[in-house]
Every structure is written in C-alpha cells, then in structure tokens.
C-alpha cells in the first residue's frame, strides 16, 4: 500500500484522528479489535505493534534487553525506543495498567474457581 505524502489540512487531520480514536473506543471486544487491526494494518505492522506492546510489558516486568531481544527478535534500538516511550507517554502506562489489571483479575478468578469447587 502506498501512502500519500501530501499534507492534510490541520483541522481535517484533527477531525480524522478524533474519528479514528472514537472508532477504537467503540470496539467492544477483542475479536472486533483484531478484525479492525487486520483490516487496516499489514501483517508486518500488526506484528510490530504487538511486539512493541510486549517489549513495554517485559521492560515493566524487569526483563533484560538481551532476554527481550532473544525472545521477541527485536533490536536493542527498538527496545530503547519503547523504553523511552514508557517514560514519556501516558498511553504506554495506561496500556500496561490495563494488562496488569487483566492479569490480576485472571489470577483471582482462578483462585475463586478453586475455592468454589
């Protein structure tokens, strides 16, 4: 896919971004989000985004650059970019908080299932 290099009017650009962000917010379940991402991202773009989220997660868990490089097959430069984003962008922290909350809920769901049985 070839992207246009022309500049979009800043007002229109803002409206387009708002529409995209609202569309993402309106997607209600993982399957809908998967379908959306697969429709608009190439396989390589989807994998890149997935790996970057994983890098942020593993950095947050204290994994080393070497471990992340070996397991995710990313460069140390990619890890550095993600690490920088972790400190500068609230969106990364927000995503990590959601991941941690989901993990916590899953752990407790399993404990409750064992208790109820």
From TrEMBL:
One matching Pfam family: Trp_repressor
GO molecular function: DNA-binding transcription factor activity; sequence-specific DNA binding
Domain of life: Bacteria
Protein name per its UniProtKB record: TrpR-related protein YerC/YecD
Taxonomic source organism: Candidatus Blackburnbacteria bacterium RIFCSPHIGHO2_01_FULL_43_15b
Organism lineage: Bacteria, Candidatus Blackburniibacteriota
């Amino acid at each position: 896919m070839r992207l246009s290099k022309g500049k979009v009017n800043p007002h229109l650009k803002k409206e387009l971004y708002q529409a995209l962000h609202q569309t993402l917010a309106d997607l209600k379940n993982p399957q809908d989000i998967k379908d959306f991402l697969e429709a608009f991202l190439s396989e390589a773009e989807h994998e890149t985004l997935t790996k970057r989220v994983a890098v942020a997660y593993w950095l947050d868990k204290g994994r080393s650059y070497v471990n992340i490089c070996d397991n995710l097959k990313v460069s140390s430069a990619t890890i550095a970019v993600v690490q920088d984003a972790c400190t500068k962008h609230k969106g990364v922290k927000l995503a990590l908080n959601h991941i941690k909350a989901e993990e916590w809920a899953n752990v407790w769901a399993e404990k409750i299932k064992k208790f109820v049985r």
